[in-house]
Write a structure and sequence with these properties.
Radius of gyration: 24 Å
Distance between the termini: 20 Å
Keywords: Chemotaxis, Phosphoprotein
Organism: Clostridium aestuarii
CATH topology of the largest domain: Chemotaxis protein chec
Largest sheet: 7 strands, antiparallel
Pfam family, one: CheX
Order of helices and strands: EHEHEEEHEHEHHEEEEHHEEEEE
Protein name: Stage 0 sporulation protein A homolog
Helix content: 40-55%
InterPro entries: CheC-like_sf, CheX-like_dom, CheY-like_superfamily, Sig_transdc_resp-reg_receiver, ST_Response_Regulator
Number of strands: 16
Number of helices: 8
Amino acid sequence: MRNTRIVIVDDSLFSISILQDILEEKGFEVIGQASSLEETIEVVKDKKPDLVTMDMTIPGTDGLECTRAIHEIDGNIKVVIVSSMMDDEIVKKAKENKASGYVQKPVDPEEINTVIKSVMAGEELFDELEKIYFDVFKESFSNNLNKLTKTTPSYAGEVRLNNTEKSRGISVVVGIIGKYSGRMIFDLSYETAKKMATVALKREVKDIKECLAMSGEFANIVAGNACSILNRKNKVLGLRVAPPTIFHGKSLNISKTTLDTISVAAKTQFGEMYLNVGFKRGEE
C-alpha cells in the first residue's frame, strides 16, 4: 500500500496539531489543512489528497456539506469523520454522505491508524486474504475437532467449483462480516453428528436437538477461531462472525453463491464432514 496523502479539516488548531502528529507518527503524509468550506475546496483542488479527515463542527457549515463538496471535486477521495460526537444518527448521516469511516475524539492513534488503513486497502488486501483464508479455516477445523473429540481429520482435495450440492442432512451457515463479507458452511449427516456429539458429551445424546446444538456450536467455534487468526495476521480485516443458522432435513441443497468459495470433504472417524468457506470482493 503506497503512502497515503491526507488533508485535515478541523476548526481547532489544537486538534489539527494533535491529529497531524499522530498521523505522521503512523507514517501517513499530511499535505494540508483547512478550517472552513472554502478552504476545504481550495486545498482539495490544489493538493489532491487520497483521504481527508473531517471534523463535524465547521463554522458556517458542517462536516457533511464539506464531504459532499469534496466528492464533487473527486468522488474517489476517502473521507474519515473525526468528531467528539458519535451516535447512531450522526454515523448514519455520515454513511449517507459517503463517509468511509468514523473516529471519535480524543483520537486513539491505533484506532485511526487501523481505520485509515482499512479505508485505503484495495485489491491487494483481498488477494492476501484469498491466499491464506482456507488453510486457516482448515487448521481451525482440525484443531477444534481434536480438542473436542481427541481425533484428527484427513482431507480430500480442495474444490473451487461453485455448484449446488446436496446436503448430508445438517447444514450450519455462519455469516462473516468485516472489511470483506463471507460465509462458512459446515455440513454433516445426522449419524455423523450423533457419533461426534456422543464423544464430545461423553454420553449418549438425548435427542436430535443435542446433535443440532453441537453442530451449531462447533461451526461457530471453528469460524470464530479462524477469523481471530486472520485478524491477528492483519487487523485491518476486522472479521466478526454472526450467530450460526442451522438447517436440517432430508432434501436440503447447498446452493450456489456469489462468493468465491473453496470446499473440502473432511474424513473423520465419525463420518464425512463438509467445509465450505468464501469471501466476496469489495466493501462489507
